[in-house]
Amino acid sequence: MNDKKNFLVNEIIEIDDNPFDRQERIRGWDQQKLRNSRVLVFGAGAIGNETLKNLALLGVGHIYIVDFDTISTSNLSRTILFRRGDKGRYKAKIAAQRTKNLALEDSAKVSWFHGDAVWDLGTGIFRHVDLVLGCLDNVETRFAINKKCYLVKTPWIDAGIYELGGHVSVFTPPQVPCYQCGATEQQLKAARKRYSCDDFKRTVISEGKMPTVQITSSLVSAIQVQEAVKLLTKQPVKSGKKIYFQGRTNDFDIISLVENKNCTGHDSYPEIISLPLKNSVTLKTFLEVVSENHFSGCNATLDFRGDRTFIKSVSCKSCGVDIKLNKPSFRIFDTETICEVCRSNNVKFNQDLSDKPSTRSTVPTFSLAKTEKHILEMTLWDIGIPYRHILAVCDDAGNYKYYELSMDDPFSEVI
Q1: pLDDT digits over 336-347, tens only?
Q2: Sign for the pseudo-dihedral over CA of 69, 72, 76, 82
Q3: Which InterPro entries match (predicted)?
């Protein structure tokens, strides 16, 4: 008689079939949190390529990519996601396609937006993600991202490179300091680089090229994404610190940033009301909705509060005649401040004219009773409201409420 016991194997788990097996062995790791995370990445250049690659391989479930630029041949030595045949194509779109191809999470979703991060994306976008990663090369966009993240209390991580050096800073609103707290005069000046004294876009800008190499972007991205994983999996992260690395000397340091008590970059909204509207509706429709009694009531007024400026007209910088514009200032080029008559008389636009202030007629607030009919018939986008923005509306008593255009979805293309 054979008295040996029979064993039944129900399942054999092959650990090497799990692409995340090794990272899940790390103490405090939570793959499910990464799978559920929504990460918004600004910049698909040198750092952005490395960061997107890292997010895809780590198994982050929802990745949103924003960039306004196109691919050039000079990008290729520092961008693992781009190829020679991609020249002239949108960085955001191609980065999204290649990131999706790399993604090891089966349910991963990657979306992209080609546009201006400062003016085309509203603050509501930042409200609906878990983390923002800045992979940028300009101060203006960093200021804008910092302000929007603090308004809706979304953490963000800034990364930057120069030659063989790089830095990473973590900001966790409402904790201070914020990025803008440490702004130098040089940075404040750099943030205004693409605008004239009238806040119009300069037609000609001397564009500086950042000297760097892929080695540096790889190192900096690795640190940025390391801090991102810690934030997303609820591990301790030091906020308001700058992690600095200098490759020439292999110096590595952590610098404590200092709060600026007068900084306006870390205000936040008290409460946000979702409106089932898009920025494609007319200004009149928006005002009619918020004028309902359960919102801001009769005489509700949309107030830009310095967030942007709507220009009705400017005086010609050559002859002084009134030029009708009816556009937000950021969509106006400095060359538009010369009238057609002066152009026909061969008045040349130059740097002196660009730097010469013009007399402007602006509209800071909008209401059904006081705003001109032709402006009321314009869409919110036409007057300068970006996708999924949060708008400030004042009632008769001077109280403000904040409304999000919740139907806007600039990331409609999901890969």
Answers
A1: 999 999 989 988
A2: positive
A3: ThiF/MoeB/HesA, ThiF_NAD_FAD-bd, Ubiquitin-activating_enz
